[in-house]
Write a structure and sequence with these properties.
Helix content: 25-40%
Shape: elongated
Strand order of the largest sheet: 3-2-4-1-5
CATH architecture of the largest domain: 3-Layer(aba) Sandwich
Structural class: alpha/beta
Number of helices: 9
CATH superfamily of the largest domain: Tetrapyrrole methylase, N-terminal domain
CATH class of the largest domain: Alpha Beta
Length: about 230
């Protein structure tokens, strides 16, 4: 019986940051020997692999694309190389696979097939933001992307505003909708609640600042097209 390979969860950089500052050398060494990849975007993953190793044999590697356009009924086939004894790496478009990321779907299937899953060390914008926020790191909840519908999003924020009195509430949106989201937060959340805005994490333009809603209302930052994590808390 063929020994199964492993599924490695391969983190990537969050932006234009130094590779060696955020991806340990040991993690880089692991991926150099892998030839099967499940990725959100093939083009950026190829570039990332070449960033790790300029001599990486891209043409010898096989890439499976896993994103919002992928038919979930097909993804279990992506693990066939692992069943044949090969290791495979899951690469998120930014940060850690499985955290606010479609990689969680393939990890779920791997566990069902009794395949060993190995998480590798790397940057998670969610945890880095929480670490630097000064808010409740003992009790927190991550809500991912809030609703695109404004009225529903406002209702969500009101619930998070209430829950923030007891635990830190993390959420985010696509960079081009940041200002709409921030406007709703500043309009509908309690003025005494604290808001941490963490954007461009690990990059030269990084900003991680915690203020009360009242203080943020006095000076609204321009977050347009900047990857951000928002945290409400006390």
């Amino acid at each position: 019986m063929t020994k199964k390979g492993k599924v490695y969860l391969m983190p990537t950089i969050l932006g234009e940051s130094s590779l060696n500052m955020v991806i340990p050398q040991g993690v880089q060494d692991v991926v150099k020997d892998i030839r099967f990849f499940i990725v959100e975007n093939i083009k950026t993953t190829r570039r990332y692999l070449r960033n790790i190793d300029k001599t990486f044999p891209i043409d010898d590697a096989l890439f499976y694309e896993l994103n919002k356009h992928t038919n979930l009924d097909e993804i279990s086939k992506y693990l066939q190389p692992v069943l044949d004894g090969n290791d495979i790496a899951v690469v998120s478009e930014a940060g850690c696979p499985g955290i606010a990321d479609p990689g969680a779907d393939i990890v779920k299937i791997a566990h069902e097939k009794r395949i060993k899953v190995v998480p590798l060390v790397g940057p998670s914008s969610m945890f880095l933001a929480l670490m630097a926020s000064g808010l409740n790191g003992q009790n927190f909840a991550f809500h991912g992307y809030l609703s695109k519908d404004k009225s529903e999003r406002i209702q969500q924020l009101k619930r998070l505003d209430n829950q923030a009195k007891y635990s830190a509430q993390l959420f985010m949106d696509t960079p081009f909708r940041n200002m709409q989201l921030l406007e709703d937060v500043l309009t509908h959340c309690s003025k005494e609640i604290k808001l941490c805005i963490a954007c461009d994490i690990t990059t030269p333009s990084e900003m991680i600042t915690t203020k009360t809603i009242a203080e943020w209302r006095e000076h609204v930052p321009n977050l347009n097209k900047r990857p951000c994590v928002f945290i409400l808390g006390c």
